Each structure stands twice: as structure tokens, then as C-alpha cells.
Sequence to fold (873 residues):
Amino acid sequence: MTTEMRHHPGINLSHSRPEDERHAEVTVFGFWTFLMNDAILFALLFATYATMVNRTAGGPTGAELFDIGNAFVETLVLLLSSFSFGMGAVALKEGREHPLKLWLGVTLVLGLGFIGLELREFAGLIGQGATAQTSGFLSSFYVLLSIHGLHVLVGCIWIVVMLAQVSTFGLSRQVRSRILRLGLFWHFLDLVWIVIFTTVYLPAVAS
Amino acid sequence: MNSSMLFGKLTFDALPFYSPIAAGGAAVIVLGGAGVVGLITWLRAWPYLWREWFTTTDHKKIGMMYVILALVMLLRGFVDALMMRAQQAIAMNAEGYLTPDHFQQVFSSHGTIMIFFMGMPFLFGIMNYIVPLQLGARDVAFPLLNAIGLWLTAAGAALVMASLVIGVFSTGGWTGYPPYTELSYSPTVGVDYWIMALLVSGIGTTLSAINFIVTIYKMRAPGMKLMQMPLFCWTALCSSLLVIFAIPGLTVAGGLLALDRYLGMHFFTNDGGGNVMNYANIFWIFGHPEVYILILPAFGIFSTVIPTFSQKKLFGYNVLVYATMCIAVLSFTVWLHHFFTMGADANVNAFFGIMTMVIAVPTGVKVYDWILTMYRGRLRFDTPMLWSIAFIVTFVIGGMTGVILSIPPLDYVFHNTLFLIAHFHNMLVPGMLFGLFAGYAYWFPKATGFRLDERWGRRAFVFWVVGFYLAFMPLYVLGFMGAARRMAYYDQPEWQIYFVVAAVGAFSVLLGIGCQVIQLVVSIRNRKGTMDLAGDPWGGQTLEWSTSSPPPEYNFAVLPQVSELDAFQVAKEAGRPYVWPTHYEPIEVPRNTALGPIFGGLAFVLGFAVVWHIWWLAAFGIAGVIATIIARSFAAETTRIISSEEIMATELRWHADVRAKQEANS
Fold:
């Protein structure tokens, strides 16, 4: 292993000059700090959901409403999108522009598919009269999932921007650093979804 | 209230003609604003301000703008305080001059402004200016985020100021507890202004905190280990970490309350399964660390000022670092003491009561460290030192009353009385504000090249300290007598004399502020006499004094090599304070950008639109933010190079200043 490669372990940007890695190190560390902040935001929304889950105000409960099958498909779609992003990261590491764009495209489609599934679920619930105004429980449910969904939407917009930037600038220092951070963001959202699946859907089915 | 497509809920009724006093306040804001705009136009200073200040990404100028914002908001927040003291001094069995509703707006805006738009910007301003210099760094890690943070904070402050002219402000206090702040009890736009101002400035604060954390971890001068950082940088780090962990609480509490109000959800409502206690918990999970966000950097300032003016090393540096870290961690374990009376069981209250007492321990350790730093030192009583000494004495009294309040059974008696008000002012005024004033006086010559006038500084100090004791000691007594907080009037004749004394105290503080204004004018006028461009007027110990005053844009032409604590002091004792090379490398600095003002403007428009339900304008604001971020990501040239010739010329001018000073001293 060359010294260049050992310079900053954990940052997956090969073929770069030390100056690139110094730059990436600072911004990536900043992005981790932001994710820590975002994780607290989600933690508080989870805590709110936990305190509100039985506050149904005479309205429907989670056990009556949730369709675990749909949630499972959503989970699969999002996990697959993390896998496809991972393939994109491999392409980025090898500096291969075309496969990178392809895998980012696949990730984008899966991300949009996830948002579509989530909107369909919401539409179904609203059709049954279970709106965010029905009860404290449903308020916290919709807000928790929408904040996650909005994050996914931001991630999708980010992917589109990065596809355009790869086409415009090629795999420049900036572009590689940004895709790296986009990856952190995307996997973080996957992680949050896993927690949603286990704290929102599974207990409702198990009860 | 009816809502139109074009103007939402906004009509001419929003203008403050409900009372002559509110209209007068609005007139002062409008005329004052128009006066400033007129003066700048008359001086033809707009291009200069835009080029040199508004679009800058230089952490030093951003820091100064933060401090200017804070000083303006200090005046506004203090006028609120004066109005409250005047009202309560005369409102014995009488209506006074404020209606109850207006009185509520006044105390709500006082608290909101002093915490979020005076304390926070003042601290972030000083941190911005000083932290990179103390670290021996050329800049912060993310200069653009830094500028955006400033302008978002300013946008939040502007929303609070706008509420004075268009519409009303919240009547729910700075904590905005539901269900009172829900739409059914507070149908006006006041609470919406409060929420939007806090959300917007909260984002700005978070961006700044990320910036400081990365700067402190990654941008230190070559060789500087964490335990060789000046203590102020440690406190800035802890404070920024607290921001990262705490501000989401404010975002969630405010955001969910907004969803209740705008979309009819049931997070904190009385009906529909809402849970009011959830708000209290989330708000104070933010709110208590916030206290330490405000006070830790001030501790850092005292830890810098006291050794300098005792001409000694800081006593117990390691212990102070650990104490700071302890406070930062413990600050997340005490939030429930803000609502002991609100239904938690005895064991929960006991836990939080004990934790609250525990957090007094590291704070006490710090007090001893400061005292022992002074012990056998050669003390100089310049104004920064005076503020520090007043702080130690006053702060200990406040700490004692805090320990009283931490005992749940006693808290049941004192809760919501003026005793509590006296307690937290007794912590935050000396703990935070005196620290900020000490820092302001201490680092003013670094930022401008000349010192503040000492005589007017002392006068301000005397009026402030006397005013503080007169204004808040009577409130302890009133608390013992059972006077509740936030009363527009009362009917106990024996209370009035204490309220009158408190009002006299507030008037003394007014004189103190007046002296500070005069001090600034006098100092600028007499600047020739106190000019010290060489850069070390106080005999400082840390790296910010090893460069010129004001420092060049790039801070250090050559990055200092650090191997010990108090690097500049060590270099001075070794007889080599300045190491001047013969050759200079060019330096890359960030270009100016209009993005800060653009984001601030969009955030203000967005906030204002949401407050008044002007949805097309809100959509425009959001689209503008997204478009601006994407456009920026395609910008290629974001830095420029300062040539080595230019650096050489700047440095040689400074070397001449230093030599002149050395000759004058020898």
C-alpha cells in the first residue's frame, strides 16, 4: 500500500492527490456533523411517535391501518437503492464515468419508486378517513414518514444535479467529493427507514 | 380572518394602531430604519458596504457584523425590559400604561430577542472573529456557510422586528408553551412570527456550529494538539457541539407546533390525542443545553481575560477543559427541572434534581480555577478584568439560588415566581453578558487597531453592576413574597416598593448602556491616542495577538508552528515573539459572494409569507432557495489568490509598526 493511499483511511477517493484528500476530509467531516444533527432530529420525531402511538383519540390504530406487505416492498426498494448506490461508489472509485451514471440513474428510479409507494400508501390511508388531523397518533405518523420522504426527495434532486455535474465537469475533485457525501446521505436515509420499519410497522403488526 | 390569494391574511388592520405605544414603537423602527438607509445613501456608502461587508466571506468581518447585529438587538431587547419595569412599578391596583396583551408581547419579545438575537449572535460573532485566530488558522472550514449563517440569523431578527410594525408578536413568552400558543387560544400571527424567526435563525446557528466544529478539529495550526488549544476554543467547541445536539429540539418543537397551527394536526392540542407535555420535554431538551451554549463561550472569555490581566498562566487548564466537557454532557440530563411541578413522579423529579445539583460541581471548579489564577498574580484592572471580577461574585450568588431551585419541593414553592426570573437573570447577565462585554473590550483593539475608552468603560461598568443588583435582588424578595412572573398588574401594596427599586435598577442599566454608546463614539474620535497596530496591546498569551491589528485578510502570512499551550506567550518568553521570513508564498482566499444576503433575503421572504399565509410567495421563497443552491454548485471559480508581492507589502508595513512599538518600549 502506498503512502498516498494510507493518507486518510476511510475516505474512498482513490487516484487523488493528497490535496484532494485534505479537501475531502474537511468537507466530509462537516457532512458527518450535519448527519449527526439530522439524526437527532429523527430521534426526536421517533420519541414523539412513541409517546403518541396510543393517542388515537377514538380513531383507527396502527394495527387496523398498516399494510406490512406494502411497507416490506418499500423497504426492499430502498435497500436495493442503497445497493445500487454502492455499485455507483465502486464505479466512482475506479473512475469509470459511464457505469457511475448508470448506477446513479438506477438509484434515482428506485428512490422515486419509493416516494411513489409511500404516496400511494398515504392516499390509501386518507381514503379510509385516516388523515393527519384525525388523531395525535396519525399526526406523528404522517410527519415522521413525510420528513423521511422529503429527505429522500432531496436525495433524488441531488442525484439529478450530480448526473448533470458528472456530464459537465467529469469526475473532478468537487464532483467526487459531492458524490461521496450524497452516498453518506443516501445510506443514512436507508438506516432511518429501517428504524421506521421496526418502530412503526412491526409493532403494529405484532400487536 | 379572511384570506386572499394575493395577500393571504395580510390587510391594513395589521398596522399597529391598536395602541399609541405600539404605534410609537413601530414609528421608531420605521423612522430609525429609514434614517439609517438615508444616511448610507447620503454617504454613498452602499457600494462600499456591499463590496466590503455584505458579500464578504472573511470570518473577521462576519464576526463583526454578528456583533453589530447583537448590539442593535440588545438595544431593542433592553427597551422591552425597561417597559416592563416601568409598567410593574406603577401597576399597583392600576392599569399602568400597557394593556395586558401588549405587556405579554413585550416580555415574549424581550426573552426571544435576548436569547436568540442578542446572546447568540454576540457569541457567534466573537467566536467567529477569535477562534480561527487563536487556532493559528487562515480561515474557517466553510466560509460560505459562515456567511449564510450570519444572514439567516439576521433574517430571523428581521422577522421579529417586522412583527413590531406589521401585525403582532407572540404573547406566549419565549418558551411558547401550548396549548396556549395553539390556534384556538392564540389566533393572531404573533406565535407564527415567533416560530418562523426561531426556525430560520436555528438553521443559521446550526450551519455556524458545524463550521466551528470542523474548523476546530481540522484547521488548527501545524503541531497544535487539542490540549494545546486556548480554552476559549474548547468552550467554542463544546458550545457548537451542544448546538448540533440541541437545536433539533427547537426545530421539532417549533415545527410540530406550526403543523398544529397551520394544518390542524394534534401534537400539542387539548383534544384529538395531543400531548402537551411532549412539547415541554422537547423544548427543554433544547432549552437547557441552550443555556450552556450561551454561557460556555463566556466562560472561555473569562478564562482568557483573567490570566492576561493577572499576568499569569491560567490555573488548572486541564481541569477547566474537563469541567467544560462535563458541563456539556450533563447539560442534557437536567431539562426536566424546568417543569418539576408539571406531573412527573417523585423519583423522576429526584433524579433531575440531583443531576441539577451535580452540574453545579464542574461550574464551581471553574470558579476556583479563576480565583486561583488571580491569586498572587500582578493584577491590572482594565475594564475586561472588572467585568470578570463582577461576574465571579455575582455569578456565585446566582449559582446558589439555582441550587435552591434544583430541590423539587422548594421548586414547587418558587415555580413561576419572580424568584426564578431573578435566578436566571442572575446567571445569564453576569455569566453571559458580562463575559460578552469583557470580550468586546478585550478584543476590540484586535478588530479595530485602537482601544475602547477606559473612563467611559468604567462608568458603564459601575452603572451596569449597580443597576443589575438593584434590578434583580428585589425580584428574589418578591419571589419569596409570592409574586408570580409575567404580571401586567397586581394588588399587593407591600410589593410596590420592590418593583420601584427594580425599575430604578433598570434605569441605572440604561445609563450604563448610554455610557457604552458614548464610549464607542469617544473611542473612535480619540483613536489616535490608543492606536496599536503592532497587535498586542494587552500582553496577550494566545496566537491572535501575534498578528497585526486588525489582522490581514489571510490572518497569518506564515502559519505558526505550535508545540505548547499559550503559544504566543511561550514565544515571547523565549525572546522570539515574531518570526519573519524573507520570502512569502501566495495565499488562496475565498471570493466574495452575494449568496449570504440572497439566502437571508429569501429566508425572510419565506418566513414572512408563511406567517401571513401568502402561499405563492412562500413557494417562490422555497423555489428560490433550491435554485440558488443548485446554481451555486455549478460555480467554478470560488477562490482567488493574494499574490506574494501584496502579502510582502502588507507584512512589511506591520513589521515597521512592531519595530516602532518595540523601540518606544525600550
User: Anything to note?
Assistant: Chain A touches chain B through 38 residues (CB under 8 Å).
